[in-house]
Design goal:
Helices cover 76% and strands 0% of the residues.
Length: 428
């Protein structure tokens, strides 16, 4: 027995878990950067006299690019590798956020927060988590994807309350500089620890015994991304998934992530307290989205999506009335809504893999996520217009809730119709 124990190789932590941990940090910081404008809307209104509609243009462009860059980001990662692509994206974010401390005009806000930060954050969005989970994990992929997706909510948990306090005490420019410094500090860690594929270290994926050879890709990233879109547009399931994710983005990042703090201020709730509500949502979503990944490994993803969207719709319809109960009603909303914030990602990625092949799940999810951000950008702008015209967010909240109920119905039909021969999985 002792001889056997001496010859048995020691169990070591698979490097895939280190990759997952580094990716979690990258997604956490990226989400914190993208969500930062939600604590800056009111300071910009006070200092520059900009309206919510004007600021909403820059935020909407930021959210739009955050999604539209996704499929091209997957193709760029496939062509140039994870490490170089992520380091480049973090550098762009650091430069863009630092430069915003010097802005004085609306067009500068649109250029920096909209285009520069939007493009950089799109490279380190949920498509990065889908790519890492697919490359490094054969087992527990849903659970890992759930944890990586939840990191975006954790970014709000870590950043927003601190940034809101900093904006109140030191001014909004200090917020931009702190965010830029945190992003820049992450680059050496990524350069040292992140690796492209398990085969680079002579390892199989977690849960497999054989090493998967590294594919040689020479296709232009833009061409591959556009080819995926062309095939997706011919698929009924793609339209259903993209449609539900459009509503998902409109009801989360675009509406709540951008406008909950101003809505709370409209009802006499302090800015720091409102940021604390987003942090509470972050805690709940860390639990809910991780659990969603675990459930995705075990249950029908269509049913999960129907439940998620239905419950979210009910919570949004309740939100305008929760202000009547002050902070306690909002806390109830934050817990209920937070558990469902982005729990939709793991089942959506799984359904994309079933429709287009596991090797193309990240790329096709990138286009589906683009629809998510188009919805978010639309809601960020329209909700600002509603507040400017009516002085309240009531119409925006109720409309988003009803749209979520429509998404619940759409999710039930994904995968019901057999794929046509022309819609075979996209070649890798």
């Amino acid at each position: 027995m002792s001889a056997l124990s001496e010859t048995r190789p020691a169990q070591r932590l698979h490097y895939a878990w280190i990759i997952a941990a580094v990716t979690f940090l990258v997604l956490l910081v990226g989400a914190g950067v993208r969500a930062t404008p939600s604590v800056l809307i009111v300071p910009w209104e006070r200092e520059f006299g900009w309206t919510a509609a004007t600021i909403g243009v820059g935020i909407a462009l930021n959210i739009f690019l955050y999604g539209m860059i996704g499929p091209f980001a997957v193709a760029i990662i496939e062509r140039f590798g994870l490490r170089r692509s992520v380091c480049g994206a973090l550098f762009i974010l650091a430069v863009g956020t630092a430069a915003t401390s010097l802005m004085t005009a609306p067009w500068q806000m649109v250029l920096l927060w909209g285009i520069v930060v939007g493009s950089g954050s799109g490279m380190v969005a949920n498509v990065l988590g889908a790519t890492v989970a697919g490359r490094w994990f054969a087992k527990r992929r849903g659970l890992v994807l759930g944890m990586l997706t939840a990191s975006s909510a954790t970014g709000q948990l870590v950043f927003l309350p601190v940034l809101a306090s900093l904006a109140v005490e030191q001014g909004w420019r200090s917020v931009s500089l702190v965010v830029a410094a945190a992003t820049l500090a992450l680059i050496p860690l990524v350069a040292f620890l992140l690796r492209d594929r398990p085969a680079d270290l002579g390892l199989p994926r977690y849960g497999e015994a054989a090493i998967t050879p590294t594919p040689v890709l020479t296709e232009n990233p833009a061409r591959r991304a556009l080819r995926g879109l062309r095939i997706g547009l011919q698929s009924r399931d793609f339209w259903l998934l993209a449609g539900t994710f459009f509503i998902c983005g409109a009801s989360t990042n675009g509406l709540i992530g951008t406008h909950l703090i101003p809505a709370c201020i409209d009802h006499g709730i302090a800015e720091v307290t409102a940021a604390g509500l987003l942090a509470l949502m972050g805690i709940c979503d860390l639990i809910g989205t991780t659990a969603s990944g675990w459930l995705t490994d075990r249950f029908d993803s269509r049913k999960l999506l129907a439940w998620y969207y239905g419950l979210r719709g009910l919570s949004l319809i309740f939100l305008p009335y929760s202000f009547d109960y002050s902070f306690y009603g909002l806390s109830l909303f934050a817990v209920f809504y937070g558990l469902d914030w982005i729990a939709t990602v793991p089942p959506t990625v799984q359904l994309a893999g079933k429709s287009f092949g596991e090797e193309n799940a990240a790329l096709m999810f990138g286009w589906i996520a683009a629809a998510h951000q188009i919805g978010a950008a639309s809601a960020a702008w329209l909700a600002g217009m509603v507040r400017t015209d009516t002085g309240t967010y009531l119409g925006a909240f109720v409309s988003a809730g009803l749209l979520c109920l429509v998404a619940a119905l759409m999710a039930a039909f994904v995968g019901r119709k057999p794929a046509e021969p022309a819609l075979r999985p996209l070649p890798a």
